[in-house]
Please model this.
Amino acid sequence: MRKAGILNRHLAGALAELGHGDGVLVCDAGMPIPAGPRVVDLAFRAGVPSFAEVVDGLLDELVVEGGTAAAEIRAANPEAAGLLAARLPALAFVPHEELKELSRGARLVVRTGEARPYANVLLRCGVFF
Model:
């Protein structure tokens, strides 16, 4: 068993398979999960784990070039919008319906227990060199 980092074996294995340009959708409990990508559902109960905890954990493990979030997050969930703006380079905002369309191209979906609106982001993987 790992001593530190991500302990969930399904998530750790999925992250190890990601490459440059791959998308990772981090979503709340209400986001429709697209058919196709690998899904790691971390939701335990409402709010556990939080969107912030999952995003921070993934950013500790991945090289991220940028992200895309729903434009509606800025008004409906300013705390999550601020978290993303502070942590992600090249953060783009698109309408929520467009984010759902873009999420169909994700290679991995990580579902959190978050129960606040629009706590979703599509991360774009980078390279470490």
In short: The beta strands are 23-27, 38-41, 64-70, 91-94, 108-111, 121-125. Helices lie at 9-16, 51-61, 73-76, 78-87, 96-103. DSSP finds five helices and six strands in the chain.
